[in-house]
Amino acid sequence: MTSPHASLIRALPKAELHLHIEGTLEPELMFALAQRNGMTLPYTDVEVLRAAYDFNNLQSFLDLYYAGAGVLITEADFYDLTWAYLLRAKADRIVHAEIFFDPQTHTDRGIAFGTAFNGIRRALDDAQLQLGISSKLIMSFLRHLSEEAGFATLEQAKPFLTRIDGVGLDSSEMGHPPSKFERLFAACRALGLSCVAHAGEEGPPAYVWEALDRLAVCRIDHGVRAMEDDALVARLKAIRMPLTVCPYSNVRLKVFPQLADHNLRQLLAAGLCATVNSDDPAYFGGYLQENYLGCDRELGLSRDDVLQLVRNSFEASWLAPEEKNAWLMECDAVARSYPA
Ligand code: HPA
Ligand code: ZN
What we know:
Blueprint: H1 6-11, E1 14-20, H2 27-36, H3 46-51, H4 58-68, H5 75-91, E2 94-101, H6 103-107, H7 113-130, E3 134-142, H8 147-157, E4 166-170, H9 182-190, E5 194-199, H10 205-215, E6 219-222, H11 230-238, E7 242-245, H12 247-252, H13 264-269, E8 273-276, H14 281-284, H15 288-299, H16 303-315, H17 321-337
Parallel strand pairs: 1-2, 2-3, 3-4, 4-5, 5-6, 6-7, 7-8
């Protein structure tokens, strides 16, 4: 079956708010970078590597994801990685992207913070000029590491902070609650950084409460397990807290058995500011537009749901109010030109 609203979805401008740049490393580029850097991968070819992308849970994905990032050595590698994503973003009509990078994944291998940062930053700046894609950059702390390690990373980031828009929290969720990073996030807020955190992906609703109350986040990444707690849903609705939902990711990491079981429509029906995002598209089998099309097909989204999701993506973004309003008006204009 095709997606009933495919042409509307393709035409609408979109913001992507939950995208790990290391998660856009396609097997072809991984092999090319390994060769460029004189490294040998433990896979004979891209098909064998792709076949290994058969995950049981978040951790089984993270193990391959961190290993794959090992081919990123030079600033040019980070530039090429980011540029490849931005070209795909352009094809999906993403006009604004808020991108995570995981500095500790690289600094712990002896790659300088600035090497990763400069390569990514330069591609984002070029995309603004050459592709008309605006962006924000979010430095994400690895929650399986200590808070002290996070503080050391924040220190390394200090020379670059004028070009970093916010901080996030990712990696292995279970056993690493947001409260572990309360002092680090307070320090980040004091530096003027916006805060987001992965919570309620595999972890319980209590982790979402902690992200709100102890980290003062302005978005929850994933958050799908919030639906298990009515009081939490009421709170998220009351403060219109955005959730950056990643449907294909949730299926590939076994949060939901299949896309048809995903709770995206329930999140919308509960009045929450849910958005659609791709998370780690090279590993999960679909970029942003595929996530929209898949949900449309498998969940039976209404035309209003589709429009609400793209509008939410701009509302939840860190664009300035006048930029948000301009994109919201463009969404409405496109929707009017695709009548039901
Ligand atoms: N969850 C936690 N950590 C991650 C993810 C995710 O979905 N993607 C990349 N790092
Ligand atoms: Zn993520």
